[in-house]
């Protein structure tokens, strides 16, 4: 809300008389807000945003321009810039007083620029669109995307609003399995190697009770297990039924360190170095 001041003067016969100072306020009748459907994001996630423009005045505003910086931020000592969101073309929807309108013109993808927005007197307009996180989206426990929308046009000062979403915290596990040798004689010895990766911000600890299980067909005899280079003991670390071939780790035995997140100081791109644990199971084909 802007305030303005005025004062009058009278000049006569070398004398100047000043009036009192009057003050007035210019009411901002146009406002904008921005909200994300989800307050968190992950690598490559689709993020839906809603931009609401409200006109509390008695005159309509036509031909407005809406500009979204898609979370642009600076990084590194040289002050480079990166844009962590990529607008999904064709996802923009436009509503006036709750009624969907024809899609407005998108004149720029980054920053996202939309023109021809009309807001009736005492009414509102809403834009809904989605954008994917890209390789410049900050990763890790402190990761955050703050993107700002600005509405500009004739007859008013531009108005802006921002929305912040945070990188999803927690455990994010994946597992792969390999067999060596791939071809083995009857009653031959085989080695199964399981690589467990954690792409999350938090380590998988004993209290998380991550349980590994597999059903070996054919079953294995003389089975041994080793986790991160340490031998496991049957009944303490795992349970195995040689008749069915079912192997199950006991609660709290599988742990995986958290991932590490690194931003390239030159390009601004982020990479994930997953935390890794390895389980090796050996035995003879029964």
UniProtKB/TrEMBL annotation:
Superkingdom assignment: Bacteria
Protein name: Conserved repeat domain-containing protein
Species for this entry: Ruminococcus flavefaciens
Upper taxonomic lineage: Bacteria, Bacillati, Bacillota, Clostridia, Eubacteriales
